[in-house]
């Protein structure tokens, strides 16, 4: 069985395909998404510094990942990415940033992961693809599922000021965000 907490050494590295070039300077859409903390969150209403890390899908213990998952550049690593944000959460908060995870899995699916990994921040479900469509976020298809490519957005006053894409390895994302926040 695959260990979802570790990244294999031979993962393909995602290349920048330009799919996020349009995002910097865009306003976050007024999309209301259900969060793992039970709240409904309107992303466009958040005025403080906001970090939204978008990821394809977290695996579950003792459940096989989709066939070919490790061969899709950038697909593998959602659990290590979430754990990295958990481990750096206090420092991110001290820099004035609110953190949200975002995927297209259901809130119930996400809640299992958030509880298991002891995430101190909410994860929101874009199960209807409202956020993805509003920003034309890049996706890919695996095992019949349309999933988000791994992208991190940093917004302030509802405007996207920085985009991290492609992200590799996935667990380096929180450190990139910390460096960005410290220097801006």
Radius of gyration: 15 Å
Strand order of the largest sheet: 2-1-5-4-3-8-9
| Total DSSP E strands | 9
The H-and-E topology, N to C, reads as EEEHHEHEHEEEEH
Number of DSSP helices? 5
Please tell me about this protein's structure.
- The chain is α+β, with helices and mostly antiparallel strands.
- The protein is built from five helices and nine strands; from the N terminus they run E-E-E-H-H-E-H-E-H-E-E-E-E-H.
- The strands form two sheets. It has a seven-stranded mixed sheet with strand order 2-1-5-4-3-8-9. Strands 6-7 form a two-stranded antiparallel sheet.
- The longest helix is centred in the C-terminal third of the chain and has 11 residues, at 173-183.
- The radius of gyration is 15 Å and the shape is globular.
- The mean pLDDT is 95.
């Amino acid at each position: 069985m695959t260990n979802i907490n570790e990244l294999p050494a031979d993962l393909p590295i995602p290349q920048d395909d330009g799919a996020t070039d349009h995002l910097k300077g865009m306003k976050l859409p007024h999309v209301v998404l259900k969060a793992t903390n039970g709240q409904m969150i309107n992303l466009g209403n958040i005025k403080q510094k906001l970090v939204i890390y978008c990821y394809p899908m977290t695996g579950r213990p003792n459940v096989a990942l989709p066939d070919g998952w490790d061969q899709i550049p950038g697909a593998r690593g959602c659990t290590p990415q979430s754990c990295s944000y958990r481990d750096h959460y206090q420092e991110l908060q001290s820099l004035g940033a609110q953190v949200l995870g975002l995927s297209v899995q259901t809130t119930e699916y996400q809640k299992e992961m958030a509880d298991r990994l002891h995430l101190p921040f909410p994860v929101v479900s874009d199960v209807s693809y409202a956020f993805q469509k509003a920003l034309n976020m890049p996706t890919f298809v695996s095992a019949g599922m349309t999933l988000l490519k791994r992208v991190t957005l940093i917004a302030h006053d509802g405007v996207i000021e920085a985009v991290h894409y492609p992200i590799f390895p996935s667990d380096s994302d929180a450190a990139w965000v910390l460096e960005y926040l410290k220097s801006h």
